[in-house]
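Holo prediction — iron/sulfur cluster.
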Amino acid sequence: MSNLLHIYQQLLTYYGPRGWWPAKTPFEVVIGAILTQNTNWNNVEMAIANLRKADALTIDVILSIELESLEQLIRPSGFFRQKAKRLQLFCHYLQEFHQGRLEHLFDQELNSVREELLRLKGIGPETADSILLYAGQHLSFVVDAYTNRLFGRLGVLSGKENYAAVRDFFMSRLPQDIQLYNEYHALIVIHCKDFCRKKPLCSNCPCMDICLYKQQNC
Ligand code: SF4
């Protein structure tokens, strides 16, 4: 079993399946992926609850609603002016080039749809890969700050790799399995929230026996 799979199994055994992404529809995943930039998930949940209450979780409503009203609905997610524009921009794009249908966007080869997403203002690699994996069911590994922190400490990454290098590292070593990619990212997130925090809680960590940081620092 590869090192990455071994770590995955340890995390999965400890936490169990996470059942990500926490959203009811693929469109809600897209909304959440844009809103979660530079904020924590609790704030995103509040913004999405506001959108749901206002029946605004559809492309048509996001396009027709006044920008100021959209800003107020998503205000809890922070950077709400910028994010409201990004949501409308994404919906405009979808309507103009994909018949207003996510299925039409996602019904392309992975690299094509990824390049399309990355050309949109406000969608960087992490957001694009979250959308691709969790909304589009594409085989695209999501890398975030948690991934770099955890695998740097475990001694798997040097900590100097850029986004593309880390993504390639995982995608070239893991089986091509969407469900595994889905679970793995979710497990990394929970592990970094519960144990591998900025100031890590190593003493009860389920990964302590394979962790370089723990061997060198604790
Ligand atoms: S042992 Fe500490 S540094 Fe290593 S993965 Fe666990 S919490 Fe993180």
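READOUT: The CA atoms of residues 94 and 100 lie 5 Å apart.
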